[in-house]
Specification:
alpha/beta, 2 domains, 13 helices, Rossmann fold, 4-stranded parallel sheet, single chain, globular, about 240 residues
Length: about 240
Amino acid sequence: MTVQIFVPCFIDQLYPDVAFNMVKVLEKAGCTVKYNKNQTCCGQPAFNAGFHGEAKEVCTKFLRDFEGTEYIVAPSASCVGFVKNYYHQLFENSAYKSQAEKTAGRIYEFSDFLVNVLQQDHFGASLKGKATYHDSCAALRECHLKAEPRQLLSKVAGLELIEMNDVETCCGFGGTFAVKFEPISTAMGDQKITHAAATGAEYLISTDMSCLMHIDGCAKHKGTELKVMHLADVLASGW
């Protein structure tokens, strides 16, 4: 099966290993991976900030960059959720309406694609230690994913998964929310870290590097030795 991959802006610039590990897992699952070097952003930052005209320009480029019939896979439920749930608003009265709808039907978050499309959950990964999982708002509420990441993590040798309290509560990042409402955002991040630390976990794992970036910053500020890991990094561990 041939798949196109979308690498979000912040992963491309700050956490490229997440993208490389996603490719490794997809290839191990038997996929032929295509990467369009012209790809940029899905348009979500501008849209969420209220700049819908500017967002539409970026989203139009996204549609052009990902023309075709292959599945599109991304290591970010936030970006995937935006394309699936909001592109139809932007292109409602546009020549791109049909293409936007088809693209929304072809794009999948990484864990969703592995479990529900490829129907694979074991990749020979191993990571010794205790971990807890963070449900990102986008994965849980926009992509309706909860069981899939946990199913994948249950097959990682040596990993003990422990659920934290209030696991479905937001970590406080929310993109520009963290900038506009820093005290609230930080307090929410601290609460998430407190619940994670109470499990005794060494690792906090999620599908969204944006959440993990925020949680990691809060953890370092608190002096907590909690390590954050993207699901793709975990599934590529121990090879």
